[in-house]
């Protein structure tokens, strides 16, 4: 039997507004508990919400980037349930008339293929506070700083067929929101959170299987693992003749398994109804069209331009445009060095390895785009070889300064002095009489390959700093003279 | 329309209001009276009538994105039945 | 001094007949002596009042005082008052001292008015008799065995008993007009959105509206001029120019077209009440107005629609009272559920609980369409009735309440009978229209109210119409006890 996995994602993205969705309290991350919870956020009696313009602008920008319909009229509703992190006893959200309607985006998979995923809708809503589980004499502490922070909840159609597709979709959403500058997209701080609806069915079957909802998965890696392990669980059950229970499950990263969240299974009835404290938000055509013209260049368009303008491979172009910061880094390095291909290679090679090793984002890179360009320029003008360049790069990463400073300080400048190189060539020839004899008696066709030995010795003698072209030229002249 | 005590229990659970077993009959009866009153609505045809959530057809005015609220934590926490280290305390939250 | 109207106090303060401190002191003493009979105040703010009065006298002496400067008033205990307990008539908020003012309160403070205290009310404004208050019922000054109406019973009784010349109040289904009618005072519920709801503890957000209760239309005009205005903190607040409602009071009302809805004079209306209202209508004819019969065919559906919409909104509005951040919390909660269930079970009274349960029912899965959605559709039909009527007439008049004040306890066991008290007032809340009640006679020495319903934002005209009537009648000058004393 061949099984097909069906996945739909609900992604919550915190919007990078300065103030909250319905109050003028700050949304800054990391403040002391409850210092950014004002009377409105605390649901003090008599307080009223007034929505944040920027949240609507951000949400509409997102909709436009997703090729979606923008709700010209959107309505907030109340979703009623009791929880200590929800001060009003209801969440103000959108249901029947959301800000973003149906749309679609293209996702790019590692094998180079692409696929379209449909967006069901995206709506604006307020975030909840946090329950802290440290023990306060057997009680929980409630911090409401996050309560009221604007979120967009992005709901996809069940269009994804593998964990890899789900990750690609999530990365695409991440890349769009960061390109737009509407969210920092930081999953570790909870700026982006993901719920996955997972079901399986026999290949060829049209009807969807019973789904489970995986809650709050907080990294790309966990999304992939959680979906895989949940799909396997479902397949095992079905193959044993069992059936799937529709429920909410939690992914346990330590055990790499999902488990039922029975506490959330109490039948809930959210009793949605239009929030009477808020009026319909109307966005005019002019407003939406103006926003459309102001949208920044988005990842797909940028990748196409990189292929065209910088002659990058499709793979490199996709890789470098996934994050706006890396695309910006690339363009700076490419422009300042005039060597786009080299810049791309350095970024996907040495720089990526460095950032990965140090667990840094590109914004935190110890080597700036300008510095990388400076390094490439020195390779280009033969001041250093590619091999020495790696040494210079490592030194820059340690904060030893720009390429020129490192080269100068460490004396890494390539030796292009003919006299010095001739001396080294003579020394090596003199010290390796046997190899010279072999060279002389060898077939002409085999000689170029045999030169490698001598070059290696000379490079070693020059501590890698000898100009390879010059070495080759002088060596060949001197060896040929011995024939 | 009569409301059975089971329905009242379900509503009380949703609304998080403890109702004692002694009064639940009374509450059910009264609730039934009110629902009988509102059931008069069913007599009128409202086909094609758009529901009206607000008395006036006004549009929402949005607020500029500015931080305008200072930290008043201590004033607000004073109102709390139980708090510690700047946090509101509640019986253990189990996820 | 307690018999003075606001207009007379304004003149007296400027003519230096008395100071704000003097009249404030006098009223505070009077409240202390007499309010034991009426229970119209929950909190008396003596210190605050005297400090405000002192400041007002200084401002008056400098000659830069706005009209209401130094005038003592009282606020319904639904308006948040910074540093003063705001209970909303509930055990839930018995210990709640907000660190902020309602916009209405702020407006009066800025105008230099003096706050005598906070008036009693039905719990969370849910009631028509002021018997659901945690602080005990308010007694009608005209007959202390009778209710003063509700939910603004304390605000109405305080004016009727001459403990305050004017009070603030709120009206969700008749809570200003019905108690005004039952206590021989003049009360006005403005157009929805005319007065900010910020800091006013919500009952049903799409229906709640604040307004004044005073001795006459002129005083109500003075108060409304201070209360009304756009407030960016309330999304439903109307952004329309400020108005001085006292400017048009003396305009002639000759040619005024008064709509008289036949549905307001049908079954259920007390015959004597009907007669007093008819007398008033004839008085308007003498003033040159024309009576036009109109029909509001969906009148009978207003109460049913209201008892879906208001409880539905209330059920969510009152969820914030959960014993976590403020308000009543039960002893030793066993777990989170227990904390919620008992805090709310203990903190809310029967009527509030009942309405929360009704609202929860109306919004719950499977019932939303039949109840909530249906009620919102009927609401539109009700509004359309009025819109059509106002094509033909300038104002609509009828009774405020089906009968005069009833005895304490008479209807408290039967919620539905109580709900029908508001049968003539509820529709204007559903439609968002302004309405007012003014004294138009007595039945067995108990007051009867005439209701005036105006078109949207037509408060100035309503006040003008009411004032003209009060120039030729003296019902509003009858004071509680004055008839029996006479």
From TrEMBL, chain A:
Keyword annotations from UniProtKB, A to Z: ATP-binding, Ligase, Nucleotide-binding, Protein biosynthesis, Transferase
Catalyzed reactions per annotation: L-glutamyl-tRNA(Gln) + L-glutamine + ATP + H2O = L-glutaminyl-tRNA(Gln) + L-glutamate + ADP + phosphate + H(+); L-aspartyl-tRNA(Asn) + L-glutamine + ATP + H2O = L-asparaginyl-tRNA(Asn) + L-glutamate + ADP + phosphate + 2 H(+)
Record's keyword annotation contains Transferase: yes
Enzyme Commission number(s) from the entry: 6.3.5.-
GO biological process, one term: translation
Domain of life (superkingdom): Bacteria
Asn/Gln amidotransferase domain segment(s): 328-479
Coiled coil: none
GO molecular function, one term: ATP binding
Keyword presence, Membrane: no
Pfam short name (any one): GatB_Yqey
Classification via PANTHER family: GLUTAMYL-TRNA GLN AMIDOTRANSFERASE SUBUNIT B MITOCHONDRIAL AND PROKARYOTIC PET112-RELATED, GLUTAMYL-TRNA(GLN) AMIDOTRANSFERASE SUBUNIT B, MITOCHONDRIAL
Reported function: Allows the formation of correctly charged Asn-tRNA(Asn) or Gln-tRNA(Gln) through the transamidation of misacylated Asp-tRNA(Asn) or Glu-tRNA(Gln) in organisms which lack either or both of asparaginyl-tRNA or glutaminyl-tRNA synthetases. The reaction takes place in the presence of glutamine and ATP through an activated phospho-Asp-tRNA(Asn) or phospho-Glu-tRNA(Gln).
NCBIfam families: gatB (TIGR00133), PRK05477.1-2 (NF004012), PRK05477.1-4 (NF004014), PRK05477.1-5 (NF004015)
Family note: Belongs to the GatB/GatE family. GatB subfamily.
Complex and partners: Heterotrimer of A, B and C subunits.
Name of the protein in its database record: Aspartyl/glutamyl-tRNA(Asn/Gln) amidotransferase subunit B
Organism: Microbulbifer donghaiensis
Organism lineage: Bacteria, Pseudomonadati, Pseudomonadota, Gammaproteobacteria, Cellvibrionales
Protein's gene: gatB
Automatic annotation (TrEMBL), chain B:
Catalytic activity: L-glutamyl-tRNA(Gln) + L-glutamine + ATP + H2O = L-glutaminyl-tRNA(Gln) + L-glutamate + ADP + phosphate + H(+); L-aspartyl-tRNA(Asn) + L-glutamine + ATP + H2O = L-asparaginyl-tRNA(Asn) + L-glutamate + ADP + phosphate + 2 H(+)
The EC number(s) this enzyme carries: 6.3.5.-
Record keywords: ATP-binding, Ligase, Nucleotide-binding, Protein biosynthesis, Transferase
Classification via Pfam families: GatC
Enzyme class, spelled out: ligase
Alphabetized GO MF terms: asparaginyl-tRNA synthase (glutamine-hydrolyzing) activity; ATP binding; glutaminyl-tRNA synthase (glutamine-hydrolyzing) activity; transferase activity
Subunit organization: Heterotrimer of A, B and C subunits.
PANTHER family membership: GLUTAMYL-TRNA(GLN) AMIDOTRANSFERASE SUBUNIT C, MITOCHONDRIAL (PTHR15004:SF0)
Name of the protein this chain belongs to: Aspartyl/glutamyl-tRNA(Asn/Gln) amidotransferase subunit C
Organism the protein comes from: Microbulbifer donghaiensis
Gene: gatC
Automatic annotation (TrEMBL), chain C:
Domain of life: Bacteria
Signal sequence residues: none
EC number: 6.3.5.7
Positions annotated as active site in the UniProt record: 76, 151, 175
Amidase domain location: 22-463
Any one Gene Ontology BP term: translation
Molecular function terms, GO-annotated: ATP binding; glutaminyl-tRNA synthase (glutamine-hydrolyzing) activity; transferase activity
Uppermost EC category: ligase
Description of how the protein assembles with itself and partners: Heterotrimer of A, B and C subunits.
Family: Belongs to the amidase family. GatA subfamily.
Name under which the protein is recorded: Glutamyl-tRNA(Gln) amidotransferase subunit A
């Amino acid at each position: 039997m061949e099984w097909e996995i069906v996945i739909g994602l609900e992604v919550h993205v915190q919007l990078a507004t300065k103030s909250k969705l319905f109050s003028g309290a700050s949304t800054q991350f990391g403040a002391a508990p409850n210092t950014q919870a004002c009377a409105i956020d605390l649901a003090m009696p008599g307080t009223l919400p007034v929505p944040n313009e920027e949240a609507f602008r951000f949400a509409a920008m997102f909709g436009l980037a997703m090729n979606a319909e923008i709700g010209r009229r959107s309505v907030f509703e109340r979703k009623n349930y009791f929880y200590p992190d929800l001060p009003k006893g209801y969440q103000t959200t959108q249901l029947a008339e959301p800000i973003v309607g149906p749309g679609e985006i293209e996702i790019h998979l590692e094998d180079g293929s692409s696929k379209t995923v449909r967006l069901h809708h995206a709506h604006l809503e307020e975030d909840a506070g946090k329950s802290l589980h440290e023990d306060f004499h057997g009680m929980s502490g409630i911090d409401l700083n996050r309560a009221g922070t604007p979120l967009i909840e992005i709901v996809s159609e069940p269009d994804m067929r593998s964990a890899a597709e789900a990750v690609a979709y999530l990365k695409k959403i991440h890349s769009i929101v960061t390109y737009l500058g509407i969210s920092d997209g930081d999953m570790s701080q909870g700026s982006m959170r993901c719920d996955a609806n997972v079901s399986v069915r026999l290949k060829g079957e049209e009807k969807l299987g019973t789904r489970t909802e995986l809650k709050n998965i907080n990294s790309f890696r966990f999304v992939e693992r959680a979906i895989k392990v949940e799909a396997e669980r479902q397949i095992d059950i079905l193959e044993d003749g069992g059936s799937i229970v529709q429920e909410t499950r939690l992914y346990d990263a330590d055990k790499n398994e999902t488990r039922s969240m029975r506490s959330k299974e109490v039948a809930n009835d959210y009793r949605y109804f239009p929030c009477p404290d808020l009026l319909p938000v109307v966005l005019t055509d002019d407003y939406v069209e103006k926003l459309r013209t102001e949208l920044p260049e988005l990842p797909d368009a940028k990748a196409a331009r990189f292929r065209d303008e910088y002659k990058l491979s499709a793979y490199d172009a996709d890789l470098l445009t996934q994050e706006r910061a890396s695309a910006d880094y690339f363009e700076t390095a490419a422009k300042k060095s005039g060597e786009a291909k080299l810049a791309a290679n350095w970024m996907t090679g040495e720089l990526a390895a460095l950032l990965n090793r140090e667990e840094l984002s590109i914004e935190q890179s110890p080597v700036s785009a300008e510095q990388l360009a400076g390094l490439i320029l020195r390779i280009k003008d033969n001041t250093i070889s590619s091999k020495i360049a790696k040494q210079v790069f490592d030194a820059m990463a340690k904060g030893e300064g720009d390429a020129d400073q490192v080269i100068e300080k460490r004396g890494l400048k390539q030796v292009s002095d003919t006299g010095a190189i001739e001396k080294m060539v003579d020394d090596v020839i003199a010290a390796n009489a046997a190899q010279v004899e072999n060279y002389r008696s060898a077939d002409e066709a085999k000689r170029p390959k045999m030169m490698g030995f001598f070059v290696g010795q000379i490079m070693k003698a020059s501590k890698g700093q000898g100009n390879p072209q010059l070495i080759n030229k002088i060596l060949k002249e001197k060896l040929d003279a011995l024939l | 329309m009569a409301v059975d005590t089971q329905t009242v229990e379900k509503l009380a659970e949703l609304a998080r209001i403890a109702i004692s077993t002694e009064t639940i009959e009374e509450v059910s009866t009264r609730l039934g009276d009110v629902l009988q009153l509102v059931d008069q609505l069913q007599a009128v045809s409202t086909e094609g009538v758009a529901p009206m959530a607000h008395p006036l057809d006004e549009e929402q005015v949005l607020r500029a994105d500015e931080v305008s609220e200072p930290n008043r934590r201590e004033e607000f926490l004073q109102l709390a039945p139980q708090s510690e280290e700047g946090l509101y305390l509640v019986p253990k939250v189990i996820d | 001094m307690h018999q003075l109207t606001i207009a007379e106090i304004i003149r007296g303060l400027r003519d230096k007949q008395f100071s704000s401190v003097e009249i404030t002191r006098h009223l505070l003493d009077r409240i202390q002596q007499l309010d034991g009979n009426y229970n119209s105040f929950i909190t008396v703010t003596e210190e605050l009042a005297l400090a405000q009065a002192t400041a007002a006298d200084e401002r008056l002496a400098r000659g830069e005082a706005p009209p209401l400067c130094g005038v003592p008033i009282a606020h319904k205990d639904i308006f948040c008052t910074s540093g003063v307990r705001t209970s909303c008539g509930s055990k839930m908020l018995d210990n709640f001292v907000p660190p902020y003012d309602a916009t209405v309160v702020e407006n009066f403070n800025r105008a230099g008015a003096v706050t005598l205290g906070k008036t009693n009310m039905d719990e969370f404004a849910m009631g028509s008799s002021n018997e659901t208050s945690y602080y005990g019922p308010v007694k009608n000054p005209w007959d202390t065995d009778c209710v003063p109406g509700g939910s603004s019973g304390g605000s109405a009784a305080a004016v009727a008993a001459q403990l305050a010349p004017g009070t603030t109040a709120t009206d969700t289904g008749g809570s200003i007009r019905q108690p005004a009618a039952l206590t021989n005072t003049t009360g006005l519920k403005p157009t929805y959105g005319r007065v900010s709801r910020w800091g006013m503890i919500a009952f049903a957000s799409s229906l709640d509206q604040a307004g004044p209760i005073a001795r006459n239309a002129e005083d109500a005009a003075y108060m409304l001029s201070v209360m009304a205005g756009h407030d960016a903190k309330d999304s439903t607040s109307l952004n329309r120019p400020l108005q001085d409602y006292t400017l048009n009071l003396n305009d002639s009302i000759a040619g005024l077209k008064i709509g008289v809805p036949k549905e307001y004079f049908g079954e259920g209306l007390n015959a004597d009440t009907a007669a007093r209202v008819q007398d008033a209508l004839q008085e308007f004819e003498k003033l040159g107005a024309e009576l036009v019969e109109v029909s509001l065919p969906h009148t009978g559906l207003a109460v049913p629609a209201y008892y879906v919409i208001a409880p539905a909104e209330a059920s969510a509005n009152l969820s914030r009272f959960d014993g976590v951040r403020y308000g009543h919390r039960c002893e030793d909660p066993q777990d989170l559920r227990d904390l919620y269930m008992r805090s709310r079970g203990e903190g809310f009274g029967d009527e509030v609980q009942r309405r929360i349960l009704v609202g929860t029912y109306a919004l719950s899965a499977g019932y939303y369409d039949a109840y909530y959605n249906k009620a919102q559709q009927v609401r539109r039909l009700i509004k359309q009735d009025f819109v059509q009527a106002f094509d033909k007439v300038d104002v609509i008049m009828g009774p405020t309440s089906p009968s005069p004040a009833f005895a304490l306890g008479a209807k408290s066991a039967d919620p539905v009978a109580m709900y029908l008290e508001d049968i003539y007032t509820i529709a204007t809340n559903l439609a968002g229209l302004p309405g007012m009640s003014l004294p138009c006679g007595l039945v067995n020495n108990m007051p009867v109210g005439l209701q005036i319903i105006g078109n949207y934002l037509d408060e100035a005209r309503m006040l003008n119409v009411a004032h003209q009537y009060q120039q030729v009648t003296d019902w509003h000058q009858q004071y509680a006890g004055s008839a029996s004393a006479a």
